[in-house]
Amino acid sequence: MAEVVLETVGLTMRFGGVVASDNVDFKLRAGELRCLIGPNGAGKSTFFKCVTGLLTPTGGQVFMRGHETTGWNPHQVAALGVGIKTQVPNLMDGLDVFENIWMAARRFLPMQDAMRKTTEVIERLALGPIARTELGRLAHGERQRVELGLVVAGDPWLVLLDEPAAGMSADDVERMSDIIREMTRTAAVVIVEHDMQFIRSIANTVTVFHQGAVLMEDHVDRVMADLTVRNVYLGKKA
Amino acid sequence: MASFWAKEVPATILVAALLMWVMPMMIGTYTLTVLVIYGMLGFSLGLIWGFGGILCFGQAAFFGLGAYTYAIAAINIGDSTIPMLLAVLVPAVFAALLGAMMFYGRLTDVYLGVITLVVTLILFKFINSTAGPEYVIGKARLGGFNGIPGFQTLNVPGQPNDYIYGDPYYYFCAILLLIVYLLVSWLLKSSFGRVAVGIRENEVRVALMGYDVRARKTVLFAAGAAIAGLAGALFANWGEIVTPNLFSLGQSAEIIIWCIVGGLGTRIGPIVGAAGLAYLKFLLGQQSMIDNTLLTGIILVLFVLFLPKGLVPAIASLWRISFGRRRKLPRHGARRIRNGGVGNG
């Protein structure tokens, strides 16, 4: 079996009396692509934020390739070689596409190599025509694609994406799926997502969150067919 | 980088040399010197605010700290060379400590403004209350609200009796400003500077790429303080006295106004804003019809309303519209200007 690249043990996050993430045990192996699903408020994003360091969990531990990363800052997590895309688009709006991607590449590469890498990523993601346009002027789909470019440019071995397909057109989603599939050749990928169409097209194993805890973890088809999951999504009592 | 050394550096030096030569024909070098010094002070805030997104309400604190460091060290040492270096170093170290405290404590925006403002106030109050004879550093009395007069002014290194003053001092200040300008230009072209601009644009994103934002902001903040400290030392030499007013809130506010009026996010803007407004203040100081502060306030309001990006960016875009049509522009920019051009005939 492949190496475990991401593991959480009893990960818990409380906000006052609310337990947003409840004792989550999670394991991801190299080369895997995993989708996290669940209704609103299920704790997917909280889990995601605890793993990436945007939040410090109140209990439990996070391990990445054997390092314990519990309570690390996001930049320390990212510096390990973890590519992160948050739910809210996080881009440098006043800078152009090239500069955005260059900055991601430059973190891990010397000057000349970073330039080469940037050109390569721009070509791979078909961003050529807008390479010199400021991010603030781009359409939503294009911005999402650039943000994936930032993730790719760092050559990560673990990729964490929070709702990459949100608000995108069918064409854009299609292109995004291709990019993500390509990522899985070199990295393990975790995707928090709502779009079932998208999940079906891309995932094998799905982890379902409900009320902060993991409800089930199985192949996408079995999860979709499961009565409890359906009820949770429709808001019925399981 | 190649075009920076081949084109920008020679061009900057040429323009600066021309200005250095032409300006004394219009304005006396004594006044001009202080305009250059204020230019450097404005530039220091322009760097950290315009390119690092750090709005510091206490840039005057570093300016005053530089001036006081110079005065105290000059009295104790008697030669100006080491005091000049100390005047750069002390504010930089102070800012590094203060910055580390703020940035590692994840303070942002308005809290940063409040803290830097309060630090300035504390320094102002403290220095003001040091009139008693017990406040002595080495041979130098701090002097409270009277300030410190009579220290050794700038001399040729190693020759304490060979003073640099008058016209040579003006050229000395102007050349220092040019050097600082070139150093900052180089810094902004480097990876560090480009990432700093990234931090200004989106701190979270830069952290998620794996950059230590806190450390980088601290370094930039210290660099800004070093420049402000140098300006302070030059000011001390020019005025031949340092007083607590250097730390005053009015001074801090003025620096911010210089940056806004001149144009934030440009290198030359804060320098132009500082020198321009300081000269205006100097001219207005010679009459008593209009109140000085009132006019500065009106200018600020007018700029915020009509030229929110500041003078230099406004002139630059005017220049592009008038002369730059054939230049290759980014996709959207080109289209917009072409449309605008039709309307103008």
Structural write-up:
The complex is a heterodimer of chains A (238) and B (345). Chain A is an alpha/beta fold and 238 residues long. Chain A has helices at residues 44-52, 74-79, 97-106, 111-124, 140-153, 170-183, 196-202, 220-225, 227-234; strands spanning 4-15, 18-29, 33-37, 59-64, 67-68, 82-85, 158-162, 188-192, 205-210, 213-219. Chain A has a domain at 1-81 and 196-238: Rossmann fold (3-Layer(aba) Sandwich), CATH 3.40.50.300. Chain A has 9 helices and 10 strands. Chain A has a 6-stranded mixed sheet, with helices on both faces. In chain A, helix 3 (97-106) packs across helix 4 (111-124), helix 3 (97-106) runs parallel beside helix 5 and helix 5 (140-153) runs parallel beside helix 6. The radius of gyration of chain A is 18 Å and the shape is globular. The relative contact order of chain A is 0.18. Chain B has 345 residues and is mostly helical. Chain B folds into 2 domains: 28-248, no CATH class; 311-345. Chain B has helices spanning 2-26, 29-50, 59-77, 81-104, 109-128, 167-189, 191-201, 203-208, 213-239, 249-262, 268-284, 292-306, 311-323, 331-343, and strands at 136-137, 140-141, 148-149, 155-156, 159-163, 241-242. In chain B, the strands form 3 sheets. In chain B, strands 1-2 form a two-stranded antiparallel ribbon. A two-stranded antiparallel ribbon of chain B has the order 3-6. In chain B, helix 2 crosses helix 11 and helix 3 runs antiparallel to helix 4. Chain B is globular and about 60 Å long. The chains are: A alpha/beta (238), B mainly alpha (345). At the A-B interface, helix 2 and helix 3 of A face helix 7 and helix 8 of B.
- What spatial order of strands do you see in the largest sheet of chain A? 6-7-8-3-9-10
Q: Class by helix and strand content of chain A?
A: alpha/beta
Shape of chain B: globular
Average pLDDT number of chain A: 87
Q: What is the arithmetic mean of pLDDT of chain B?
A: 88
Per DSSP, the total helix count of chain A is: 9
CATH architecture of the domain at 1-81 and 196-238 in chain A: 3-Layer(aba) Sandwich
Taking all Cα atoms into account, the compactness measure Rg of chain B is 21 Å
CATH topology of the domain at 1-81 and 196-238 in chain A: Rossmann fold
What share of residues of chain A is helical?
25-40%
Q: Can you count the beta strands of chain A?
A: 10
CATH top level class name of the domain at 1-81 and 196-238 in chain A: Alpha Beta
Q: Spans of chain A of 5+ residues with little confidence (pLDDT < 50)?
A: none
The major sheet of chain A is characterized as: 6 strands, mixed
Full CATH superfamily name of the domain at 1-81 and 196-238 in chain A: P-loop containing nucleotide triphosphate hydrolases
- C-alpha geometry of chain A: globular
Major β-sheet profile of chain B? 2 strands, antiparallel
Number of helices of chain B: 14
The proportion of residues in beta strands of chain A is 25-35%
Question: Oligomeric state of the chains?
Answer: heterodimer
